[in-house]
Amino acid sequence: MERLTVVVPCYNEEEALPIFYNTIVEVAKQLPDLDFEFLFVNDGSKDKTLEIMRELHKKDQRVRYVSFSRNFGKEAGILAGLKSASGDMVTLMDVDLQDPPSLLPQMVALMKEKKVHHVATRRATRKGEPVLRSFFARLFYKFINKISKTEIVDGARDYRLMSRAMVDAILSLSEVNRFSKGIFGWVGFETEWISFDNVERSAGVTKWSFWSLLMYSLDGITAFSTAPLAIASFMGFLFCGVSFLAIIIIITRHFMGVESAFGWASMVVSLFFLGGIQLLCMGILGQYLSKTYLETKHRPVFIVEETEKDI
Ligand code: UDP
Ligand code: MG
Questions:
Q1: Is 71 in the pocket of ligand 1 (CB under 6 A)?
Q2: Measured between alpha carbons, how far is 177 from 220 in angstroms, rounded to an integer?
Q3: Which atom of ligand 1 approaches the CA of 13 most closely?
Q4: Ligand nearest to the CA of 158
Q5: 75 in contact with ligand 1, CB cutoff 6 A
Q6: Is the pLDDT assigned to residue 248 strictly greater than 80?
Q7: Residue in 96, 202, 211 to alter for ligand 1 test, most ligand atoms within 8 A of Cβ
Q8: Would you state the pLDDT for residue 306?
Q9: At what angle do helices 49-59 and 16-29 cross, to 10 degrees?
Q10: Band of the pLDDT at 101, cuts 50, 70, 90?
Q11: Third-level CATH fold of 3-225+301-310
């Protein structure tokens, strides 16, 4: 029998986890030809999430879990899940039912029918999401797709169904700064897409603040494009050209006998402007340098403190 692993990263999800478990068990009944493995990743929760996972494992042997020594972030949770999944197919979903488990039978059917390695989902709408958040999210996708060769689909969820071959491909990427939305695209494989309407969280609250999303998007940009680095060279060329012109104008004016003592304000402004550009370019360089620094440390992406084998 083919095995399907359901990987679910959880951070402070004591309310959503039991609801999720009940839902996924029902969905599993609709797929009797598959041997299910429910793999929960506890991303350093401070509430009763881990206790619930232990209980679920005692009750249902299909439940496995990996518990981190602290919060490492959702990307680390995804990696840990994919690493310890034993399935021939692996699906990835959020615990809050915003990735509707009811789509799973359709995804499995599509994978078999079209013989693809990857079935992905996207939200058709962003309804129910704060307006400002949607606006910046759209802006981010426009920008990153302009500057990156890897396609990063707007509205795409991390909710995927992947074959073993694709999971192994993802695991072969050794980078520490992991931006899954980019990695899924980067590894390639023909992909079938399913759209669904935005669903509100089943219980609990979102773990993403505006700030953490902003930082996440910067990680995405540095991980999948080096275009911002080119800004520095471009600006350098531009300002060299402009100052060359200015020199010619000043010399000509001198020989034409036009002497001037005014123009202080414009001089100060242009100095500030250039200073700003220089700092900006140095900042961009710094972003990439810091990422390189973190990569060269080769620190593990996560530390496991406990799994179901420990109890
Ligand atoms: N999550 C995680 N670690 C974190 C933050 C979130 O494992 O540091 C999990 C969370 O438990 C949930 C999923 O990632 O299963 C998506 O999080 P959330 O629903 O808060 O994000 P949103 O849907 O609001 O983007
Ligand atoms: Mg959510």
A1: yes
A2: 9
A3: 11
A4: 1
A5: no
A6: yes
A7: 96
A8: 94
A9: 30
A10: very high
A11: Spore Coat Polysaccharide Biosynthesis Protein SpsA; Chain A (3.90.550)
Whether ligand 1 lies within 6 angstroms of the CB of 182 is answered as no
Partnered with residue 65 across adjacent β-strands are: 40
Q: Of all atoms in ligand 1, which is nearest to the CA of residue 11?
A: 11
Sequence-distant (≥ 6) Cβ neighbours of residue 91 within 8 angstroms: 4, 5, 6, 7, 104, 107, 159, 160, 161, 162
Calculate mean pLDDT across residues 265-281: 80
**Residue ranges covered by each domain of the chain:** 3-225+301-310, 227-296
Torsional class of 93: left (φ above 0), alpha (ψ -120 to 50), beta (otherwise): beta
The pair of three-digit structure tokens given for residue 60, joined into one six-digit string: 């249902």
Q: What are the residue ranges of helices labelled H in 104-179?
A: 104-114, 131-147, 164-171
Q: What separation in Å is there between the alpha carbon of 206 and the centre of ligand 2?
A: 6
Residue 104 CA, chain-centre distance (Å), reads 22
Query: Residue whose CA is closest, atom 10 of ligand 1?
Result: 10
* Ligand 2 centroid – CA 79 distance (Å): 18
pTM of the predicted structure, to 2 decimals? 0.81
Q: Give yes or no for residue 68 CB within 6 A of ligand 1.
A: no
DSSP, res 102 = G
Give the atom of ligand 1 at the shortest distance from the alpha carbon of 71.
8
Q: How far apart are CA 276 and CA 216, in angstroms?
A: 25
pLDDT per position as a tens digit, 70-100: 999 999 999 999 999 999 999 999 999 989 9
- What does the pLDDT look like over 201-221, one tens digit per residue? 888 888 788 888 888 888 888
